[in-house]
Specification:
The structure holds 2 protein chains of 2 kinds. Chain A contains 4 helices and no strands. By secondary structure, chain A is mainly α. Chain A has a single domain, classed as Fumarate reductase/succinate dehydrogenase, transmembrane subunit (3 helical TM bundles of succinate and fumarate reductases, Up-down Bundle). In chain A, α1 packs across α3 and α3 packs antiparallel against α4. Chain B has 10 helices and 7 strands. Chain B has a 5-stranded mixed sheet. Chain B has a two-stranded antiparallel ribbon with strand order 6-7. Chain B starts with 10 loop residues before the first strand and ends with a helix. The model of chain B has no long low-confidence stretch (mean pLDDT 95). The chains are: A mainly alpha, B alpha+beta.
């Protein structure tokens, strides 16, 4: 059910997410010290290539990691297999990528 | 229901699974409580004195053959080396066939799928030399030999297979014993079947499915670490895949 390729991509996406999560949390804690609101955050992120790439990469890593992780859960607990499992995995990946990408676009552009 | 009464003196209350996969129930027996007795001693006493039709499996009685494993109070144990006083709480025992395997009768599990998966994982030595060649020299202190040594003492008892929640969840999963065996052979420098073996353990039921929960490590009677062997296989298969060999 999990092949070496999926194992590789799950480990790789975890490797990518780990530092991104730490930077994200540290930035949030630092940024809200003096009480930022949404408009102030957007003022800093809009037009920023760095934050666009940062959160774009984060969304891609989450889409890959979540799709593979949920694939395992669905297979082991709900016994979904074969084509259904492939459709589920790809759907989760596309869904997270779609919603995440939309959020990145909204914050950066 | 009490099917038998032990001789006078302290005794054990024992529930034993009677039946097979299609039908069965726990039957209650009393057996004498003796110092240093093993679980296998208790089962043997019950069969000889209370339930002559009780089926169970054993051979060596000294922890070498791996045939007497069963569930003892819900946990997989090698019964010939498990003393009653170490596992019986309140002098009560519940004995059942090994988890994750079909039941033939009473305490006898069908081990076919366990050994089939051993073969599926290419768990057999593939020689690279002929009888005409010199005997291979393997340095005992080499990293590969030490890795093989760490997992080589498996006795095929299937305790790890019964302890593995992933086997329960994923019937195609090869299981800790078969993968541990594959890892010992991956580290055998005399073996010529590595490509096929790495492919075999990279399939849909292969090593990458392991969640590293370590139930196998917890219950292995020989204190092996199949989880570490499986982690080794994950590394080896990843390297092979990156080299384009899978």
């Amino acid at each position: 059910m999990l092949t070496v390729r999926m194992h590789f991509f799950q480990r790789l996406s975890a490797l990518v997410m780990a530092p991104l999560v730490l930077v994200h949390l540290a930035t949030m804690i630092y940024a809200i010290q003096s009480g930022l609101d949404a408009s102030e955050i957007l003022a800093r992120t809009q037009g920023s290539l760095f934050w666009g790439m940062f959160y774009g990469l984060f969304v891609i890593a989450v889409a890959v990691h979540a799709a593979i992780g949920l694939r395992v859960v669905v297979y082991e607990w709900l016994k979904v297999a074969c084509a259904g499992l492939e459709v589920f995995t790809i759907s989760v990946g596309i869904l997270v990528l779609g919603y995440g990408g939309r959020a990145v676009v909204a914050v950066v552009f | 229901m009490t099917d038998s009464t032990a001789e006078n003196g302290p005794h054990l209350e024992v529930r034993v699974w009677r039946g097979d996969d299609s039908a069965g129930k726990y039957v209650h027996y009393q057996a004498p409580l003796r110092e240093y007795q093993t679980i296998l001693d208790v089962v043997t006493w019950i069969q000889r004195n209370a339930a002559p039709t009780l089926s169970y499996r054993f051979a060596c009685r000294v922890g070498m053959c791996g045939s007497c494993a069963m569930m003892v109070n819900g946990k997989p144990r090698w019964t010939c080396r498990t003393q009653v006083n170490k596992v019986a709480k309140g002098n009560r025992l519940t004995l059942a066939p090994l988890r994750n395997l079909p039941v033939i009768k009473d305490l006898v599990s069908d081990m076919s799928e366990f050994f089939d998966k051993w073969q599926e994982a290419q768990g057999r030595f593939q020689p690279s030399a002929t009888r005409e060649d010199a005997v291979a020299s393997v340095a005992p202190q080499s990293a590969q030999r030490r890795a093989a040594d760490a997992g080589i003492e498996c006795i095929n008892c299937a305790v790890c297979y019964a302890a593995c929640d992933l086997v329960t969840a994923n019937s195609k999963y090869l299981g800790p014993a078969a993968l541990n065996r594959a890892w010992t052979l991956v580290n055998d420098v005399r073996d010529s079947g590595q490509s096929a073996r790495l492919r075999a353990v990279s399939g849909s039921g292969g090593c990458h499915n392991c969640h590293a929960q370590q139930g196998c490590v917890t219950y292995c009677p020989n204190e092996l670490n199949p989880t570490a062997s499986i982690a080794g296989l994950k590394r080896a298969t990843l390297k092979a895949a990156m080299r384009g060999e899978l």
